[in-house]
Specification:
heterodimer; A: about 280 residues; Enolase-like, domain 1; 2 domains; 4-stranded antiparallel sheet; 14 strands; about 35% helix; B: about 160 residues; alpha+beta; Ubiquitin-like (UB roll); 5-stranded mixed sheet; 5 strands
Chain lengths: ~280, ~160
């Protein structure tokens, strides 16, 4: 199995044409684990780490475009991302461990499409759009349409994620990403919740965006709960009253990390903890 | 394929299968046994090396990715190669080494931390070393060692 390192996108399409069964990777933190387990053994690997065009972050009017090959550490440290998307920074800070965050990339976390992927709930609440590119051109899909199931995406043959588009004008005043795992670092989420709220000065919820991780085959969102919260004061009573809805919306599974029953409980408890979000959460 | 990179300050050029894992290149092909492999899946940090100064996991990197890079392993930390680097000395003095298997990774992660943050808090030390697992020490002595190393380096006016 040979490993190829194209330095520009045009070279990528060329080497992919010559090596049709090749798999692509950037950080390698998922694919190389699968190779070791023998889950996949392609005839060639194409590493995207040398393509500088995939590591840029820029603004287009009201949108920030993040190159898909940007490592998590670079995003956590980027002033624009810190200011505009604190919920994403909070999520990336608890993804894997420092060396994993130095290697792994945002595009890779999306392409892996694990229901436990830490960037995903944050990207769902931010209504991220995924830019997909092949030799012929680019198309854009909302993240919830791109991810179709556990490990399943809408990536076409010989197509890669090149960018993530996030609108800057998200009118939220507080946000939070909270994850429950077996330990703090190096733990895959048992359940997680990303939240963005716009609160009025008197503590009323003007709008809400919520996304649970590890709580179903894909990230779980709920227009029903978001609508029920809007216009209401953010109180423990409001949240308690919506617990049956949370328990209905999530559809977790039993696996080595936790049971479905426990996950459902944690998903609900993460929601209850939002009552303290104005004090504890990062401000948006 | 022919791969050229800098290893512990010296240029290296070797003919390697492009899909050989970097940890195997270092240990098996180049005889540098200081880099350890435990989990092989990026969960323990034992195989940490510095690539262009940044901690990376050599079990999750392939030989082709070394081309043109500047790699530091635990063998390259002490400039003279004879006396211990102040960080290594601090680990010895603080009793931060028991079985020693995690130590090279811990020391290299510390090197990176202190190069960016010469006087970290205990909380910052814990965060920076959170990708390196130790099953002997309970971590307290390791955090002590990093504090001691920070003192030694700042006293000498050196950077990690």
């Amino acid at each position: 199995m040979k490993v190829l390192l194209p330095e520009i996108l045009e070279m990528l399409w060329e080497v992919w044409e010559q090596n049709p069964g090749a798999e692509v990777y950037t950080g390698g933190t998922d694919l190389l684990v699968k190779l070791r387990e023998g889950v996949t053994w392609p005839p060639a690997l194409i590493c995207l780490e040398r393509i500088n065009a995939l590591r840029q972050i820029w603004e287009e009017e009201d949108t920030v475009v993040i190159g898909a090959g940007t490592p998590h550490t670079a995003l956590i440290r980027h002033p624009l991302i810190q200011v505009e998307f604190p919920v994403l920074v909070e999520a990336l800070k608890v993804l894997g461990s420092p060396p994993i965050r130095n290697m792994g990339t945002l595009g890779g976390n999306i392409a892996t499409a694990s229901p436990a992927g830490d960037s995903l709930p944050a990207l769902y609440v931010l209504n991220a759009e995924i830019v997909l590119t092949d030799a012929k051109g680019s198309r854009t899909l909302p993240i919830h349409e791109f991810i179709t199931g556990p490990g399943q995406t809408g990536l076409g043959p010989r197509e890669i994620i090149t960018g993530i588009r996030l609108k800057k004008t998200a009118p939220y005043t507080v946000s939070r990403y909270e994850k429950v795992g077996k330990r703090k670092a190096m733990a895959i989420a048992v359940a997680s919740l990303a939240t963005c709220l716009r609160l009025s000065p008197d503590g009323r919820i003007e709008s809400a965006r919520l996304a649970w991780g590890s709580a179903g085959p894909a990230i779980v969102t709920s227009p029903e709960i978001e609508t029920a919260m809007s216009g209401q004061p953010l109180t423990p009573e409001l949240l308690r009253g919506l617990i049956p809805a949370v328990e209905r919306e999530v559809s977790p599974i039993d696996d080595i990390r936790a049971t479905a029953v426990y996950r459902r409980k944690v998903a609900a408890n993460l929601f209850l903890r939002l009552s303290g979000i104005s004090e504890g959460g990062a401000s948006a | 394929m022919k791969i050229s990179f800098t290893l512990n300050g010296k240029p290296v050029s070797c003919d390697l299968p492009s899909n050989r894992r970097v940890v195997d290149v270092l240990r098996e092909d180049l005889g540098l046994m200081g880099t350890k492999e435990a989990c092989g899946t990026g969960e323990c940090g034992a195989c940490t090396i510095l690539v262009d100064g940044i901690p990376r996991l050599s079990c999750l990197m392939l030989a082709a990715q070394l081309e043109g890079r500047d790699v530091t392993t635990i063998e390259g930390l002490s400039k003279s190669g004879e006396t211990l680097h102040p960080i290594q000395q601090a680990f010895v003095e603080a009793g931060a080494v028991q079985c020693g298997f995690c130590t090279p990774g811990m020391v290299l992660a510390t090197t990176h931390l202190l190069s960016e943050n010469p006087r970290p808090t205990r909380e910052e030390i814990r965060e920076a070393l959170s990708g390196n697992i130790c099953r002997c020490t309970g971590y307290q002595k390791i955090v002590d060692a990093v504090e001691l190393a920070a003192e030694k380096l700042t006293e000498k006016g050196e950077t990690a």
